[in-house]
Predict the 3D structure of the following.
Amino acid sequence: MEEVVVVGAGPTGLWLAAELRLQNVPVTVLEARKERNPHSKALTVHPRTVEILGMRGLAEDFVAAGRTVPTGHFGALDARLDFRNLDTPHPFTLVLPQARTEELLEAHARALGAEIRRGHRVTALAQEPDHAHVEVVGPAGSYALRARYVVGCDGTRSRVREEAGIGFPGTDTTLWGWLGDVLTDEPPAVAVSVFGPDGGVMAVPLPGGLTRFVGLAPEDRRPDWPGELTLEEMRAKTKRVLGTDFGMRDPRWLSRFGNATRQAADYRKDRVLLAGDAAHMHFPTGGVGLNVGFQDATNLGWKLAATVRGTAPAGLLDTYHTERHPVGARLLASTRAQTALMTAYSTEGQALRAFLSELVDDLPAFSHALAERLAALDVRYPPADPATAHPLTGTRAPDLAFADGTSLFALMRGGRHVLLDLSGGTDAEASSGDGRMPHLPQETHHHRTTLARPEGPWRAVRAALIRPDGHVAWASAVADTEVR
């Protein structure tokens, strides 16, 4: 019997496989495509995703493969969000084609021992009390697998979700965007973005001399399929908005995408779980989709591994839905709001865009809050008992610098819980009102030190337990006696 079968070898599935292998859990990844998709739906890696890569010692490789941009956008407003003031060692958007992201993630997963089978398509799935039964068609014919758990990372048309009978409520497409990767005679030196009453277009230089054009047009506000995108149509719409088509020619990829917005009713149904686009679909505003799926996998990986290994406390796997479903719901609300701004073609809509851009420029606190939300640095998981929990419980832990020269992210490379004793060797008792420290997993890494730069809410923390996904499981204002 397989321990875990992951269906889908996109960024979410590959990262989940790597996280499971980091915990020594055998995993088999089934991918219907025989070859990696050469076309990159996503280009954007946000700060929190780069942080997670940093927690596994991979950030430098990904940054070296891409291009850093110190800003981001909300709804393609003219005013950009400045990431440089965010509390992160990676205050930037990383422009990195998804094909390259997947290549790096696959190499990482394989190096850890994940089995990845390309050209293997899941055709059916059924659940039994102690396993899931998976029917597969591969290059050599049909076969079946029995697995303790199956995770659907197989996109918005997820066969796993359908076979498991998990609902996918939401709204249908009412407008269409378009995308094209083409060669240009006069490529833009930097990214260009204009959204106005005639539509909106972004032009982004890509590796290999290509330019990506992404746009929206008033005439594409329609529920029915407009037909295949042509170079002539894209050229005309680009020229209408930007005043030039940059001499676009030789298209490598032309595509359309709709604004259908849906979320899985359940992220877990018995032995089947969902992550990434299989759990939530939306208009690709802000480039957040890949990142939220990646963060789904980070939350799920250690919980599923502990469950498979028999070391998880009761109910741990259920907290995956409890914690990530609200994040997905907020994602859909954000992308809907951004879509409304990007398609605000009327005089009133243009006034709204100008008004919000002015707020971004004039109100640093507003701009900072939007940047934190877009970067996913503000995600907090509610504690089980808010009345007794420390205020930091459930928040994302920053890359704390310690007096001994180490840092928190460096301590997390093995994917284990990290128990910090920041008391400096004092014998203080645990303070009241901080909640009881949860049961420590056997492989928790203990680290006694002090903060190199005691700042903000961490200044008074004397002990903390950090989860493998980088969120605070527990904290106390003074060192707990069990830390010593």
